[in-house]
Design the sequence.
């Protein structure tokens, strides 16, 4: 079982930045691809970004490309999401997730473990 704990959410003005963190105590962290998803009220959960096991490959949703950066530190068992130039439409609960497959990296069903989520609110 892999437990994931997100942190770093909050309230920020449009144009501002936040960095989300997702930590796990699992010793097998480096064997999982990691992803970030988000879910706004009344909407389906959507893919945001993913990073491969060693961090050599990343993938982003078009809506965040150029503004968000995903990274990981396997020594700290932590994955990060740096969010810059935030927009009101980025407001959502953000979830990190772990997957043993890179093939389904943009699909929520392709992930095996999920965190509890952290709220990000961007005011206009």
Sequence:
């Amino acid at each position: 079982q892999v437990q994931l704990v997100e942190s770093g959410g909050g309230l920020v003005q449009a144009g501002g930045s936040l960095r989300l963190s997702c930590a796990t105590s699992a010793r097998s962290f480096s064997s999982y691809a990691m992803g970030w998803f988000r879910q706004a009220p009344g909407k389906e959960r959507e893919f945001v970004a993913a990073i491969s096991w060693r961090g050599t490959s990343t993938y982003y949703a078009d809506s965040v490309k150029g503004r968000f950066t995903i990274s990981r530190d396997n020594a700290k068992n932590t994955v990060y999401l740096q969010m810059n130039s935030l927009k009101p439409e980025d407001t959502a609960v953000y979830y990190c997730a772990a997957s043993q497959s890179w093939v389904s990296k943009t699909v929520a069903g392709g992930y095996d473990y999920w965190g509890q989520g952290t709220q990000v609110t961007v005011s206009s």
User: Anything to note?
Assistant: The mean pLDDT is 96. The longest strand covers residues 92-99.
